[in-house]
Specification:
SH3 type barrels; 160 residues; single chain; two-stranded antiparallel sheet; Cytochrome Bc1 Complex, Chain D, domain 2; 22% helix; alpha+beta; 2 domains
């Protein structure tokens, strides 16, 4: 997983940011950072939820909450973050778990980039850690987004 997405910033509280006027053209330019993990319609990476139409049914405050504090509410289907480590505690694979079977010793993991890998964890001696309340998406402040960037991004996302 990427460890940094930009220079760390400080963002204001959600009501303060929600009062700002956004510009869709600037928001579209900033949306490139979203496409590192998300699809915006037909463009981007299919790791996180597709954001086309996502903002249309949410208030600016709801959108901001999900971008500013992504671990507070994990979308269905993206709520099983997992890390598999070797016996010497080295991370082997991280991503989103599906089709986990302790009895067969296998788990499917959707990895960064969008591919799904079947891992035979018992056969390879890997330990599985299901991460509680953890989003692979970093908070807005760790993606280098300013208050105005967030207002612009929301305005753009509402157009999809």
């Amino acid at each position: 997983m990427p460890t940094t997405f930009g220079v760390k910033t400080t963002v204001s509280d959600i009501p303060t940011i929600a009062k700002l006027s956004g510009d869709a053209a600037r928001g579209q330019a900033r949306a490139a950072i979203c496409m590192t993990c998300h699809r915006l319609g037909a463009q981007g990476v299919p790791f996180g939820p597709n954001l086309a139409g996502w903002a249309a049914v949410r208030s600016p405050e709801q959108i901001l909450k999900d971008i500013v504090s992504p671990s507070e509410h994990l979308a269905h289907g993206f709520d099983r973050p997992v890390r598999l480590t070797s016996k010497d505690k080295k991370v082997v694979i991280e991503g989103l778990a599906s089709n986990y079977s302790y009895h067969s010793g296998s788990i499917d993991v959707k990895v960064f980039g969008g591919q799904t890998r079947k891992v035979l964890f018992r056969k390879s001696g890997l330990s599985i850690e299901f991460l509680k309340d953890h989003s692979w998406m970093p908070p807005a402040s760790e993606m280098g987004l300013s208050d105005q960037d967030l207002a612009d991004l929301i305005t753009y996302l509402k157009t999809l």
